[in-house]
Amino acid sequence: MWACSGSPLVAEICAGSGLDWLLIDAEHSPNGLESILAQLQAVSGYPVQVLVRPPVNDTVIIKQYLDLGAQNLLIPMVSSVADAEAAVAATRYPPEGVRGVGSALARAARWNRVSDYLADASSTISLTVQIESTAAVEAVDDILAVDGVDAIFVGPSDLAASMGLLGQQEHPQVRAAVEHCLAAAERAGTPAGVNAFNPTTARHYLDAGARFVLVGADVALLARGSEALAADFIPASDGDSPAGY
């Protein structure tokens, strides 16, 4: 499930719902460093795997998220081996990578209270890269072979757009591309996930080899739930109500 509201309270409610995993999103959601930190703290007492998605595959942002204590990252728009290698390098200290050293200031190291943090940090981090373009699909076998890529996650929305099928995530060609990636991951022995937009599609991709699926988002649940309440109690209007930002 996606946590997109920026609310630690909402993230905590979702974390206690029995979900396997929860992703705090900063690519399409109003999450900055402070709100990500607050949500990591809010969900830390629950038995749910927490991922964080930065807005971009950027060394500095990845360093900041890791220092905050994020241990599972989902990196968007990874379309090549070079993209994947850059993401891996950003998660590792030299000489294996380029992560800046600031453990004395980092929640992840408990401000240098965790012994051997610098030596052991990379073993506590998992990296999932997002396959969401035709270039990524074509390169998926090579991306899967990059040392340090622990999983892939297929994003049908951007993938459909890159195929000239904007908004058609369920198009047969998009489904075929997703299934191609799932099969490649299975051959490589690497877990693969996918954004599924309804339970039927989720079950289809699970049957096709997906190990984890996205089946909802906090803001979508709130939007659809509030709409359902309004539909039950408010007479239908002839047009949209004025709204602003």
Automatic annotation (TrEMBL):
Keywords: Lyase, Metal-binding. Coiled coil: none annotated. GO terms for cellular component: cytoplasm. Gene3D superfamilies: Phosphoenolpyruvate-binding domains. GO terms for molecular function: aldehyde-lyase activity; metal ion binding. Transmembrane segments: none annotated. The keyword Lyase applies. InterPro entries: Aldolase/citrate-lyase_domain, HpcH-HpaI_aldolase, Pyrv/PenolPyrv_kinase-like_dom, Pyrv_kinase-like_dom_sf. Residues 1-223 form the HpcH/HpaI aldolase/citrate lyase domain. PANTHER family: 2-KETO-3-DEOXY-L-RHAMNONATE ALDOLASE, PHOSPHOENOLPYRUVATE CARBOXYLASE FAMILY PROTEIN. Belongs to the HpcH/HpaI aldolase family. This is 2-dehydro-3-deoxyglucarate aldolase. It comes from Arthrobacter cheniae.
